[in-house]
Amino acid sequence: MTQAEIENTIEEGSLVSLHFSLKLVSGETIDSNYEGPAASFRLGDGSMLAGFEDALIGLKPGSELAVTLAPAEAFGEKNPKNKQSFPIAKFQHLFEDDLVPTEVGSVVSFKDPGGFDLPGVVAGINKDTITIDFNHPLAGKPIVFKASILAVMPANVETLQVRL
Please, what CATH class does the domain formed by 3-75+139-153 belong to? Predict the structure, then answer.
């Protein structure tokens, strides 16, 4: 039995239950579950970005965390190669929908070669081209990550039961 198992500290593979919030440094809330049920996940399962998981390592039940993550630790830096211009003629159908106007800032969805949805934000429109930004909308922004750890179970435990 490892020391982490005895103390129930968060390590790779731990089952974790927590309340969390993600905010911009301006204070605008991006996501939060403090008003609802706790989130439960296995550290390293891919359900949280690595930067958020790294900030949780070593915490125990009852721990509180508030940290500002640099863009590279959160949703990544903006990649200028993810901004692409296309002939507007190929996107005429987007402008024919009166219910959902297509304008700068609109989110549009494309299919990648594997058939998966690939969202993009309209970054520019002119008479010949439409420019789509495929960066994550939060790329390039520092994120304030706050967490309250409710329960931690060691990596060898299959399920997490929290009684509040």
Answer: alpha beta
Q: Are 152 and 60 in contact (CB under 8 A)?
A: yes
Q: Does domain 80-133 have CATH number 3.30.70.1660?
A: no
Torsion angle, alpha carbons of 76, 81, 86, 92, to 10: 0
Strands 129-133 and 83-87, bridge-based pairing: antiparallel
Give domain limits for the chain: 3-75+139-153, 80-133
pLDDT in tens, the chain (164 residues): 444 445 689 999 999 999 999 999 999 999 999 999 999 999 999 888 889 999 999 999 999 999 999 999 999 999 999 999 999 888 877 777 777 778 898 888 888 888 888 889 999 999 999 999 999 989 999 999 999 999 999 877 765 555 44
Residue with tokens 């965390």: 65
CA separation for the pair 159, 124 (Å, rounded): 48
C-alpha dihedral (84, 85, 91, 92), degrees to nearest 10: 150
Alpha carbon distance 18, 60 (integer Å): 11
CA 68 to chain centre: 14
